[in-house]
Amino acid sequence: PSVRGVFNSYLQESFNQIPREVGDIESEWTMFSSSIVDAAIRSCGCKVTGAGRGGNPRTQWWSLEVRDAVKLKKESYRACGGGELLASTGDIVGWWKEYFKDLLNPTDTPSVEEPEAEDSEVDSFITQAEVTEVVQQLLGGKAQGVDEIRPEYLKSLDAVGLSWLTRFCNIAWRSGTVPLDWATRVVVPLFKKGDQRVCSNYRGITLLSLPGKVYSRVLERRV
Fold first, then answer.
1. Fewest 10 Å CB contacts: which of 41, 71, 144, 187?
2. Which helix or strand (DSSP H or E) is residue 25 part of?
3. What DSSP line would sit under 59-127, residue for residue?
4. Considering only 39-53, 55-69, 80-94, 166-180, which range has the smallest mean pLDDT?
5. Average of per-residue pLDDT across 87-103
6. Which residues of 64-78 are buried (b: 16+ CB within 10 A; e: fewer)?
7. What phi and psi, each to the nearest 5 degrees, are found at residue 54?
8. How far is it, in rounded angstroms, from Cα 3 to Cα 18?
9. 186: phi > 0 → left, psi -120 to 50 → alpha, else beta; which?
10. How far apart are the first and last CA of the chain?
11. Partners of 204 in the beta sheet?
12. Cα separation of 164 and 200, whole Å?
């Protein structure tokens, strides 16, 4: 059998243990997302690199220049606006939190008037065809969100897996509540230029849950 077939067979085993009754969306989603990640690891394996596979991370490429660069990189995560190095983890996290809070939440954003959608379309159940179309348009090789579900996992789902994803979209739509993973955003700092120890020389990219993104795009298509 193909890798995709093995992946979905493992998923089917796990899905049989998930209750079909609509209960706590958080616990059901945890079982569903864990099943996808576990099935991917079982069918494709998990690559281990560096010291984790018994190798020495300090190989022939390790030099004084590399050591200094690594030190500078670590310091870049500890510097505040005035160039003073922060000592405690709490201060470091707090500084980055405030920096990205101001950067990603501008106060002078113009208001955008949202178009009105047809009531019949908005109120109807989300169909598996809608979910399948959005999943097929996902780009491979993109980073996963906090739930660790990669685009390739979703694109490999068979009809049964897509029906489960559609079911969760409908639970979220009818209840007005999404799983915590779908609403969690992971901000990753990327260096632009200048002093690597200055926060303002970084921009942030936000990693979102891909199943949550599928749900959002389905709703966007209806507007």
1. 71
2. helix 25-44
3. -TT--HHHHHHHHHHHHHTTB-TTSPBP-SHHHHHHHHHHHHHHHHS-S-PPP-PPPP--HHHHHSPPP
4. 55-69
5. 73
6. eeeeeeeeeeeebbb
7. 100, 0
8. 23
9. beta
10. 41
11. 189
12. 43
Give the separation between CA 11 and CA 17, rounded to whole angstroms: 10
Secondary structure (H, E, C), 132-146: HHHHHCCCCCCCCCC
| H or E, element range at 202 | strand 202-207
Which of 73-77, 117-121, 158-162, 219-223 ranks highest by mean pLDDT? 158-162
User: What's the whole-model pTM score?
Assistant: 0.72
* Alpha-carbon span 185 to 30, nearest angstrom: 17
pLDDT 10s digits, 159-218: 999 999 999 999 999 989 999 999 998 888 788 888 777 777 777 788 899 999 999 999
CB 210 within 8 A of CB 144: yes
For 11-20, the pLDDT digits (tens) are 998 888 777 6
